[in-house]
Amino acid sequence: MSKFDLIIPLVTLVSLSTNSFSSAIDFNHEKDIGIPGEVSKVSRTIKLTQVDNMFLPAEIAVREGEIIRFVIKNGGNKKHEMMIGSMTNLKKIAKARRMFPDQDHTEAHLVQLEPGEQKELIWQFTSVGTIDFACPLPGHFKKMRGKIIVEKK
Question: pTM, whole model, 2 decimals?
Fold first, then answer.
């Protein structure tokens, strides 16, 4: 048996497992969390601070249709993220982060921050209900969570 006989099945296994896991995350269902908002139509700004193991505040109320400018500051000593999504998908993403911690992520509903860094996320909330947010990084997800309550107009 040659080296190539071993490499091809290994490469196939890795690519299939990565593709099947990513397809298990239902990004199409995430339309219920809203859409990226237009900067020129922001109705208000909400400041969020990340400290190691929590978001401040951890609960936010917005109105249906409202476009929010989130100003997120990492006040902790570790790298953090803020991702908006359903709890089901946030759990899947956190699991993927544990399995593939060095993989790059560029989702529209994700902000990555180094210690001391501040960034903005402009988001429009299109459906009434509860939307979750969390830091999906390994070791952060269980404690670094919050809720956005979207109230009827």
Answer: 0.78
